[in-house]
Write a structure and sequence with these properties.
This protein is α+β, with helices and mostly antiparallel strands. The protein contains 6 helices and 10 strands; from the N terminus they run βαββαββββββαααβα. A 4-stranded antiparallel β-sheet has the order 2-9-6-7. It has a 4-stranded mixed β-sheet with strand order 4-3-8-5. Strands 1-10 form a two-stranded antiparallel sheet. A hairpin with a 5-residue loop joins β6 and β7. The longest helix has 39 residues. The protein is globular, with a radius of gyration of 18 Å.
Length: 181
């Protein structure tokens, strides 16, 4: 087993100030993923819009790991539709390690990150890249990681499917309640 840190196992790509990327009147657009949308698990009609002509690194797709590093610190898998990633959110990816591995290690450090942000909360608490870099990660051997992946990847995938199904049921509930009242 070797020691590493979060920035060595994953790429934490910060979103853009999407107000600078508003769509032109006839241009294809995407909803903007902000902390509000991350909390509710989807975008809606009140979500801001941005140009769809963005670098792929700041476009969020269903299943992507999103880490809010400012304000409300949280780590979630995005279960909404395709969206543009706003500032104060990281899209967490890795070419080297499975998604469940980087998700769980980021989540493991979340309480410490929240404590760091609470200590800086003059206006809006946040963490810095140096906090990611100082977050210890233990990496098992390739063989052990492959064995873990064969067992955990299907569970991780099922978890995402259940989250999406719950959201669909919640939307259906809201639709039915509107018709009832």
């Amino acid at each position: 087993m070797k020691k590493s840190n979060l920035t060595q196992i994953a790429n934490y790509k910060n979103g853009l100030a999407m107000q600078k990327y508003r769509p032109n009147s006839n241009e294809e657009s995407l909803p903007v993923l902000k902390i509000k949308e991350l909390n509710q698990g989807n975008t809606d009609d009140s979500s801001d819009r941005c140009s769809a002509n963005l670098d792929n690194s700041v476009i969020v797709n269903t299943g992507d790991i999103i880490f809010s590093w400012s304000g409300t610190l949280l780590v979630k898998n995005w279960t909404g539709d395709k969206a543009g990633l706003n500032q104060h959110l990281f899209k967490v990816t890795s070419n080297k390690y499975p998604a469940w591995f980087i998700y769980e290690w980021t989540k493991y450090h979340l309480l410490r990150f929240q404590a760091i942000a609470a200590g800086k909360a003059t206006t809006m608490g946040h963490i810095k890249r140096s906090d990611l870099k100082s977050s210890l990660v233990y990496i098992p051997s390739q063989l052990f990681l492959a064995k873990m992946d064969s067992q955990l990847a299907p569970i991780y995938s099922q978890r995402l499917n259940l989250i999406k199904e719950n959201q669909q049921l919640s939307k259906l509930k809201q639709t039915l309640l509107k018709k009832y009242f």
